[in-house]
Design brief:
The chain is of the alpha+beta class and about 775 residues long.
Length: about 775
């Protein structure tokens, strides 16, 4: 058993000792011990790696593992292939500088021979020691996260109570987690967790800070400013090192070392005094210096078209890379904000001998945090030598992220592609039910998939056709499609990554999943129906109602399987708990049984989550929806009619029934329940009537997948043949009226049976 992991260097710099963490899947019944996984390079040489089991099949064999490993080198803009194989010898290689952890009563020490971190659980302390090559990287106990509430009172992370846990530990990668609450005198406010991540063979540290509003005030709290701060162990007069993007008369990038303090900001406006009114929701962020004078790039030396803001905006002249270095006579430090522009407003600045990471800068007015909402931010810190060159500094930054053109989200420096044939064989996430990726024989189809489904925004209500190259930016907005990711918007990205290996789809999918986790998911609420649920589409993401039909979270399961971040799985389980109360309590079940989306979406969610958390209540809840709701509708009306809302002169039949069909199918696929199967097939006669099958209706009504469900249940192509005319008509439309989630399973069968082919495609 062997599978490939494809790695591609996106930048024109050689990458050395590059860390990779990626989830890979295994067929049922093949792998029972994660220590049996070996990693090999193109020449068959062993690569040190550590594998962690993320999920198991029904027979207790391993389904998903997270593999941590170090790639010794990837040449400029080139590719590498590593192979994951099952080996008999279970001894693992050790990296040259393995990560080691020492724990004590109130501390954790992480070291790999290159860097040493001592983290404390004592109140008043966080980072007691941070060394590299025997020298302090920062002044002991200088690392902190603080904010000011609406009254101006300062709260500090290290002054609140906190505890330390080892979240992920192996010789290749270590993640130490600190959970706590910000403190001020005897008061505490705003929960948070910190992750300190160290890799073997590297001296940099990745730090992720994430807050969650579990405070009692409803709807939320307001803060004035939010900063991570630390004091590097360098002289106050150390040189400030950064890189401008548009310098000199030639408008080209240039390295700078200046004596004065530098303030780098991410924003969609430079009107800082009037930010609240000049900022536009969802707009693209730009990274630039707040004070143009630190560029030492006088306008009078430039040609006329670069002087006049009529032709070149002052903002464009001030663009810089989102990193800042401080180099003194004996040592230095490099810091960077990950995805700084996409999560604007942001600030990265030096202030004498202090570095400040502005999560919410003081010039951005007030930050309103709805009860249950949160956000994560990641920074990178690396030591520098006094003789480190500008090119070396930038190369270090580019090993963390790659900035694209202004206004575009940064990318990871290395693309990771899965073994798509292997994934199909594993039959995970229904990938085997999707059309095979065949760019050679179906180029028009694959182009249209990218143009019509991957780059399309479903808009605020799910059906507009605005083609967008990227997700919207902003503190709360990044990772959202404008509708709180209605109808599993990110599901498409993840499935296409596993179907094609496209890494950009994975990046977008993770951004969407993180928005769901931090913004749409209600981590805490005094309202039990909202607590642990998801807020439906509303003006400000998370200040609306939560109800079953508008909880979409399959993206969380993909993200967990591919990144190993346990927070995704924990949130998915909590949402399932929220759904169960709607189904198990009869007074709430009345709503669930009143509309087909209220019935169907919980079944989709519960059955998908069941594969990652095998709680029998999930299947019991689905059974109740099918047999005490849908089957009862047929007894009463003769067909599956949703009886609500009462105010409508007609019953909602077509609008949401796609969800009930899908939910029933996934339930049957797990249980093989004959009663459900026979019920679905009997009702499909009604579903396949001309009233409900038109190629020119919008995507929810033109759902083709029920025919695929019947085909998989029976193996009888009659079900597909009966809708073949509709399939071909829809497929030939220049603008496809059908969405990915309502058609792809049927299109796969139609390709296999020869009903459609690439020649049927009409380019848009």
């Amino acid at each position: 058993m062997e599978q490939k992991i494809l790695l591609k260097n996106r930048i024109h710099r050689k990458l050395k000792n590059h860390p990779i963490s990626y989830g890979i899947c295994w067929p049922e019944g093949v792998l029972f011990d994660e220590k049996s996984i070996g990693l090999f390079d193109e020449k068959g040489n062993r690569i040190f790696c550590s594998a962690t089991t993320l999920n198991k099949w029904q027979d207790n064999s391993i389904q998903w593992t997270l593999v941590d490993f170090i790639v010794d080198s990837i040449d400029e803009s080139s590719s590498r292939t590593v192979y994951a194989k099952l080996i008999e010898e279970q001894s693992q290689l050790q990296p040259e500088n393995p990560v080691k952890v020492e724990t004590g009563k109130d501390f954790v020490c992480i070291t790999n021979g290159l860097v040493k971190l001592v983290l404390s659980s004592q109140q008043g302390h966080l980072v007691e020691k941070w060394e590299a090559s025997g020298k302090d990287v920062i002044v002991p106990d200088s690392f902190d996260i603080n904010f000011k509430n609406e009254k101006g009172k300062k709260f500090s992370a290290k002054e609140g109570n906190h505890r330390i846990t080892l979240e992920h530990v192996n010789p290749v990668r270590c993640v130490v987690r600190i959970d706590g609450k910000h403190g001020s005198d005897k008061d505490e406010m705003l929960d948070y967790f910190l992750r300190f991540e160290v890799f073997a063979n590297r001296d940099d540290v990745k730090i992720t800070y994430s807050f969650r509003n579990r405070e009692i005030p409803v709807p939320g709290i307001t803060i004035k400013s939010f900063y991570i701060e630390c004091r590097p162990s360098v002289e106050e007069n150390a040189k400030r090192c950064f890189c401008g993007k548009n310098l000199t008369r030639y408008y080209v990038p240039g390295f700078l070392r200046v004596d004065e303090d530098v303030c780098i900001v991410a924003s969609d406006t430079d009107d800082f005094e009037n930010y609240h009114n000049s900022h536009k929701k969802g707009s693209n962020g730009f990274v630039f210096v707040k004070d143009k004078e630190v560029l030492h790039d006088p306008d009078e030396e430039k040609p006329w078209f670069l002087r006049n803001v009529k032709y070149r905006t002052s903002l464009g002249q001030r663009l810089v890379f989102p990193y800042l270095g401080l180099i003194g006579e004996n040592s230095g430090i490099l810091v960077s904000f990950y995805q700084m522009n996409t999560l604007h407003p942001k600030e990265l600045k030096s202030k004498k001998n202090v570095i400040l990471f502005g999560l919410w800068p003081d010039w951005a007015n007030e930050l309103s945090i709805t009860q249950g909402a949160g956000r994560s931010h990641t920074i990178f810190v690396a030591p520098l030598n006094s003789d480190t060159s500008d090119m070396e500094i930038q190369s270090k930054y580019l090993s963390w992220e790659v900035p694209m053109m202004p206004g575009w989200p940064p990318q990871n420096p290395v693309e990771i592609s899965c073994d798509i044939e292997h994934v199909r064989k594993c039959r995970v996430f229904a990938i085997d039910m999707l059309p095979e990726y065949d760019i050679k024989n179906r180029p028009l189809f694959e182009k249209k998939v990218l143009d019509r489904w991957i780059k399309v925004s479903y808009g605020t209500l799910g059906w507009t056709e605005e083609v967008i190259p990227m997700l919207p930016d902003g503190f709360w907005d990044y990772g959202d499609n404008g509708a709180n990711n209605e109808e599993m918007f990110g599901h498409v990205y993840f499935q296409n990554h596993l179907r094609t290996g496209n890494y950009t789809c994975l990046e977008n999918g993770i951004a969407i999943a993180r928005h769901i986790l931090e913004v749409d998911f209600v981590d805490f609420s005094i309202d039990k129906l909202q607590n642990g649920g998801m807020v439906a589409h509303c003006l400000n993401h998370n200040d609306g109602a939560a109800y079953p039909s508008h909880m979409w979270f399959t993206e969380l399961l993909f993200a967990y399987a591919l990144t190993g971040d346990i927070e995704f799985k924990k949130a998915a389980i909590r949402i399932c708990e929220n759904l169960l109360q709607w189904i198990e309590d009869e007074k709430y079940f009345e709503l669930v049984s009143g509309d087909h989306r209220e019935s169907g979406q919980p079944m989709i969610n519960l059955t998908w989550c069941y594969h990652f958390h095998r709680d029998p209540r999930y299947l019991k809840a689905c059974e109740k929806i099918i047999k005490k709701n849908l089957m009862q509708q047929v007894k009463k009306y003769g067909k599956m009619f949703a009886p609500k809302p009462h105010s409508m002169p007609i019953k909602l039949v077509r609008y949401g029934d796609y969800a009930t069909w899908e939910g029933m199918f996934w339930y049957w696929k797990i249980t093989k329940d004959d009663e459900t199967k026979n019920f679905m097939l009997s009702q499909l006669e009604w579903r396949l009537s001309t009233e409900f099958m038109t190629p020119f209706a919008y995507h929810r009504v033109s759902d083709m997948n029920p025919a695929a469900y019947a085909y998989y249940m029976t193996g009888d192509r009659m079900w597909i043949d009966r809708v073949a005319k509709f399939i071909k008509a829809s497929f030939r439309c220049a603008k496809w009226p059908i969405g990915w989630i309502h058609s792809m399973y049927t299109l796969k069968i139609a390709f296999d049976l020869g009903i459609i082919n690439d020649d049927d495609i009409i380019p848009q």
